[in-house]
Amino acid sequence: MTEIDTQDNGEIQEGTDYDVVVVGAGFSGLYMLHRLRDELGLSVKVVEKADDVGGTWYWNRYPGARCDSESHIYCYSFNDEILEEWEWSERYPEQPEVLEYLQFVADELDLRKDIDFETEVTSAAFDEEAGTWTVSTDDGDAVTSQYFVTAVGCLSEPYVPDFEALDDFEGEMYHTGKWPHDPVDFDDKRVAVIGTGATGIQVIPEVAKEDVERLTVFQRTPNYAVPARHRPLTDEEWESIQANYDEILEKAHNSGFGMPFETGYETAADLTMEEVEEALEPRWQEGGFRFLLAFEDLLINEETNEKVSEYLRNKIRETVDDPDLAEKLAPEDHYYGTKRPPLHTDYYKTYNEDHVSLVDVTEDPIERFTPEGIQTADDHYEFDMIILATGFDAMTGTLLQMDIRGRDGLTLDEKWNDGPQTYLGLALYGFPNMFTITGPQSPSVLSNMPVAIEHHVEWVSDTIEYLVDNDVKLIEATRAAERAWTTHNREVAEQTLYTTADSWYMNENIPDKPTVFTPYPGGIDLYHNTILEVAEKGYEGFELTEAVTDLGREGDKPQLSVMEGD
Question: For the CA atoms of the chain, what is the radius of gyration?
């Protein structure tokens, strides 16, 4: 990649404030800034609502917040010096260490000077006459750019269910996605945690360790969780990682999930339960996502998955002392892996503690909040503190919070009324020169996120370089390409077990949101090859124009060859 020759004012198009405006300063936004500014020589402005870098790792500071990808692969791979200088301390890094890592990267690459902190994007509108974007912020400012890139993350818009009388509660209330920066005092308090998804499974054991008087967990649906087997990394382990880092990262980037782990067996369908247990036990003891990769057909074969799910249910029954409680914690409503598969540290053991109890809200639903606590159908519970581990408006929530308008004033909210429609999870018909890093219909949350992020950032920056080198003013996905990719995404999902679960992958946690599988489930390796092939074929499925007035005149092009037969 060579630095682009820009005009005297530093912009590739006259009359704009910046070449590119990027929203978000997490993993995606930081790398996007570096690629565009330092390797292409473009003028870039990053807009970030927090007062520091970090993205999700800035906001999610709740007790137990920890990455569930192993630290040595949950990182950037593009810079050898950063790989050599940074040393992870634990197998799964805690939130403070991930945040410190991103702060370190921002300092090493001198990124902060081009980031507007404590600034929130309120709207972004495409100007058809000028072929530029106008991005407005909550401080009343507005800037223009040729390209608009969203790097807002997939899990960044906290969701609070519409509980009746929520504001009546007079005690402390926190959402895990907006945890206070100052320490929270748990001593001698009666605490409720609502939610047993991946976040709840992390926070519940940590709160139970505090000097709380009582911890009550409100569970809607139980979840399968595999032990993380978390521990500090030894010097010998780190030396081995450093010695083999290139090979490790290459395997991660060429794998289906963005992790350098081998699949164990083709199927469990023809194995006895004893043979399945024999295959799974070593991976259970090793911990982490290696367990998820025990069988190749786990997410497409009901027989295989049911055997793995029963293995996990039996592990829960072995761990939880109270048989009735164990059954409430053992999922029967979905296949393992069809919801986000959490890792845990002593989650199930926590329920053996005398001061910890579970309320199954399917049997005893929450009716309303009261000044003193929570009223269910059968009981009233008094609390000093309520923790909402109720998740996020995932994948599209943050994008839809911004008033993004494309050609003809079309809003993103209107475009996605029946669910997200994208081309490759990267671009949208009707929204020229706009790119979505790890957007809906890309692998994103079904992979190790930094790998997915690097693939997208590098593709977008390479694309912008191509456009500039070839005097192309505008790029837009065609309607046909978008339809084909949206159909392809749905058809691949329907071949899996993912669509059988009421999950946030399917938007089922948000009322009135269309039920549709939002990530791309075909594997990060296949997906990456696809987007590279699209570029190699001269950006097949995109309309590229040298003049602004030519845009949008050839929106219906044939279906893409790269998706034929999938």
Answer: 24
Pairing status of strand 380-382 against strand 356-360: unpaired
Q: How far apart are CA 26 and CA 153, in angstroms?
A: 8
Structural domain tally of the chain? 2
C-alpha 493: how far from chain center: 18
Residue 354 domain flag: yes
Domain of 52: which CATH number?
Answer: 3.50.50.60
For 40, phi then psi, to 5°, come to -105, -15
Query: Cα 495 to chain center, whole Å?
Result: 22
Other Cβ atoms closer than 10 A to 167: 8
Residues 135 and 204 in one domain: no
Using an 8 Å Cβ cutoff, are 61 and 179 in contact? Answer: yes
> pLDDT tens digits, residue range 195-211?
999 999 999 999 999 99
CB-based contacts of 444: which residues, under 8 Å, 6+ apart? Answer: 154, 395, 425, 438, 452, 519, 520
Q: Could you give the angle at the alpha carbon of 550 between the alpha carbons of 544 and 555, nearest 5°?
A: 65
* pTM of the model as a whole: 0.94
Q: In this predicted model, what pLDDT tens digit does every residue of 163-199 receive, in sequence order?
A: 999 999 999 999 999 999 999 999 999 999 999 999 9
Domain with 208, as residue range(s), is: 166-388
Tally of CB atoms within 10 A around 345: 19
